[in-house]
Structures are given as structure tokens and as C-alpha cells.
Automatic annotation (TrEMBL), chains A, B:
Lineage: Bacteria, Bacillati, Bacillota, Bacilli, Bacillales
Family recorded in the similarity comment: Belongs to the flavin oxidoreductase frp family.
This protein's UniProt keywords: Flavoprotein, FMN, NADP, Oxidoreductase
Superkingdom per UniProt: Bacteria
Organism: Oceanobacillus jeddahense
InterPro entries assigned: Flavin_OxRdtase_Frp, Nitroreductase, Nitroreductase-like
Residue span(s) of domain Nitroreductase: 8-164
SUPFAM superfamilies per the UniProt record, alphabetical: FMN-dependent nitroreductase-like
Protein name, as recorded: Oxygen-insensitive NADPH nitroreductase
Pfam families xrefs: Nitroreductase (PF00881)
């Protein structure tokens, strides 16, 4: 196992940072790393908003509810961004151009471009000894998330990445067994994979029991069922369409 | 610059592989690396299909048109996957559960989960001296892409990742200048960023002129305009809804 794979394997989300800010050179190398990720046809359909202003962090904290949105070394927000491309054409925009921009296909392109860039940023940060945590919780109120950052049309805020100096190092969370997510040459029917999930349910029960800080006793299946019984963030769909994404 | 950031900075897409297959241990470490990426609330809403069967590769090659889909060391297909979660609940499915699964929010979750896993796989592969290329081109016919892999409901094939032993090492492609994609504390209006794009147009012109193998003389702006004038993959939107994703 080389140093890179070791860093990848060693990942855990950090939710408790000191308030020591990242240096400018750390931020620069993390963002440059993000930029080197692959991008569909080199369209680079994403933007990153770096948040260092405590007032902006506090506003985002109100949306997310997580302390590490307020207290971290730096906060990056990843957006799907077709605004740049929309603006390039200026007044000559044709109907076909617009139809293209507003397609589900282009929403997928922007979302994947942003996520690939983010994961490069995450690994670069971890390679510098920093901790990271993804923040989907900022979509708890996607309109407010958008408004705080003053995003124009054709820009959708997807998630945050809190980065900083860890104040604690939690255990690594077990994942589903490899064969539960990895299929060969064609999709394996769920019936044949069910026992891997039962195995994982036991793993997660043991994992939670072994932790002092957490009293969760649920299996993964129980967690999933509880989570999906309650529709959440149902405003994301209409919001995204309102930004001229994912319309058809 | 550490070894990890060096690997990230050194990325270029490889489109010419030998047909030497990856070893099983290489595949295992790459997939395990993918699994260690962050996942929204640990739902792991993605699956990976590893393609080693030449017949399956050939079928996918017909869809994509790129030679490196046919000739590589291994091919990974990344899917947004809520099928596993859908199946967990079995016959007790409530309407609320279904509404949740079929939301745009959950389509975003699956797409991001898959992309973060993929970028871990890409970096792990590159750290082993292998080359990679993302394949959005498999969405050229997303229904056929789906059918070749026998994907059930609630699974959407997103892209491929061709991995292998490089037969050539192309130049690193320049990206937009950092300030064109990186904003601070709020979104910077396009007017203030325009000159970075003009700068990049010149960079890309120079880049193409310096390459022997490629006669492209277009600026990035010209490429973008040409690309978006022609709506493509407009069947992706209806296909995704047909898989019970992204419906509201």
C-alpha cells in the first residue's frame, strides 16, 4: 500500500475543528488540486466559493445546524455552474443553446464536475494533515444557502466541504462489504446480495456498541428505513428548476 | 508539494492503453479506495460494475465510440443506486418512502456519492502508475448503456472509468485560471471574471498549436459555443425519470 492509498483508506469525517485558519498557500494548493480533476469535455461546469468571513459562516451554520460549519479552518462550497457558459454566448443565445443548458444531462455534468473537483480537494487537504467533512446539510434550506452566497441563475449550490485542524480523530466508519457495491460484468440481483447487508447490519451494531461517545444501537437497515420514511429537502427539485437546471 | 498532491497535479486523461489486464489485487485496492470516499449519511447510494468481459466492453464501445472503452486494463461503471435501499423495505414500503426516493434531492445524493467514489478510484489507480479516463460518452445512448449492464429500477448508469497501462502520456491540459472558478465569500459577477476567460482562450490556443497530434485551433469559448449549439443526450432526462429518479 502506497502513501496515497494509505491516505484514502485513512479517511474519516472530522466534525470538531480548532478555529485556526488555513494558510493562503494551503488554500491555494487545495483549490489547484480541485481544478486538476477530470471535467466533462473540459467544460468545467462548477465553481467553488471559499468562505473565510465569519459572518457568512454563521449564516450557513444557521442553515446546516452543524458546529463545524461555524468553526473550521476554511469552508469550501461546491456549486454546479453553467452561468459562465451561459454568459459566454451573450446576446447571440439561440434556443438550442438554452435547451441544452437546461437539460438533465447538463445538470448531471455540473454535479459530477463539482463532485470530482471536491474529492480532489478533500484528498489534498487530508494529505496536508488536515481533516475534512462534507456538508450536504446546507441543502436543508437550499434557497437560503443560495441567497447567502448571492448565486446567479444557472448556479446551484450542492454541498460544503469544511476543512481544518482536527481536535479529535474519530474511528473509521465501516462500509458495506465490497461485493455489496461491486458487481461484475452485469448487475447482481439484490436477492444474491442480501446477506452482505445482514452482515453489515451486525458490523454497524458492533461498531456503535464499541464507541463510548455514541449510544446508537441501530442496524444500518433500521437507520435507512427511519431516514427514508420522512421525506426531506423536497424543495430542492423545484429550486433547481428555478435556477434553469434539470428542466427536461 | 507532497507525493499525493504531486499525483493529483500530474493527472491527464489516458486514451491509449495496452490490453494488459489489471491484477485482481489492483482491482481490489482501487474498489476499496472508492468505498472509503464520503457518502451522504452513509447511505452509499451508488454501485460499481467492473467490466472485464470483452463482449461487454465491445457492446459499450459501440455506444461510446471511443477505442479505450474496448481496449483497457479494466473498466469500471459508476451508477447512482437507490435500488438497494428500495429493496430493504420490502413489502412495507410507504408512500412517503417512495416520494423520498424519487426526489431530485436523492438523485443528487446518488450522483455525488458515485462521483466521490469514482475520484478516489481514479487517484488510487494513478498512484499505482496506471492511467485513467472518464467516459461520459457512454451516456450517448443511456438506454443501451443501461441494458448492457442489466440495471434494475432505481439504478442509473452515470459514467465509466477506463483504467489501464498507458501506451502514451499526453500533455497536461491547462485549466481556467484559479480566480475564474474560485470565489471568495460570495459569487463574483461574470463581468469581473471575463478577462480570465479571455486569458484562458489564448492559453488553449497556444496549447493546441504546441501539440503535434492535434490540429485544433479553437479557443475555449469557440469550443463551448460549438458544443452547446447542438443539444445532445436529451433522452437522459426522460430515461432518469423512467428509472424512478429525479421525478419531483
Amino acid at each position: 500500500m502506497n502513501q496515497i492509498i494509505e491516505t484514502i483508506m485513512n479517511h474519516r469525517s472530522i466534525r470538531n475543528f480548532s478555529d485556526k485558519p488555513l494558510s493562503n498557500s494551503q488554500i491555494k494548493i487545495i483549490v489547484e488540486s480541485a481544478q486538476r480533476a477530470s471535467s466533462s469535455s473540459n467544460v468545467m461546469a462548477y465553481s467553488i466559493i471559499g468562505v473565510s468571513d465569519q459572518e457568512v459562516k454563521d449564516k450557513l451554520h444557521t442553515i446546516s445546524g452543524h458546529a463545524h460549519v461555524k468553526t473550521n479552518g476554511h469552508l469550501l462550497i461546491f456549486c454546479a455552474d453553467l452561468h459562465r457558459i451561459d454568459q459566454l454566448k451573450g446576446i447571440e443565445h439561440t434556443e438550442a443553446f438554452q435547451t441544452n443548458l437546461e437539460s438533465t444531462e447538463q445538470f448531471i455534468v455540473g454535479t459530477i464536475d463539482a463532485a470530482l473537483a471536491a474529492q480532489n480537494a478533500a484528498i489534498a487537504a487530508e494529505s496536508l494533515g488536515l481533516g475534512i467533512c462534507y456538508l450536504g446539510s446546507l441543502r436543508n434550506d437550499i434557497q437560503a444557502f443560495n441567497d447567502v452566497l448571492k448565486l446567479p441563475s444557472h448556479v446551484v449550490p450542492l454541498f460544503g466541504l469544511a476543512i481544518g485542524f482536527p481536535k479529535e480523530i474519530p474511528d473509521i466508519k465501516p462500509r458495506l462489504p465490497l461485493p455489496a457495491i461491486y458487481h461484475e460484468n452485469e448487475y447482481i440481483p439484490f436477492e444474491k446480495q442480501k446477506h452482505f447487508i445482514q452482515e453489515y447490519d451486525q458490523t454497524m451494531k458492533d461498531y456503535y456498541e464499541s464507541r463510548n461517545s455514541n449510544n446508537k444501537q441501530e442496524t444500518w437497515t433500521e437507520q435507512i428505513n427511519k431516514k427514508y420514511e420522512k421525506p426531506t429537502r423536497m424543495d430542492v427539485g423545484p429550486f433547481v428548476k428555478g435556477k434553469n437546471f434539470n428542466k427536461h
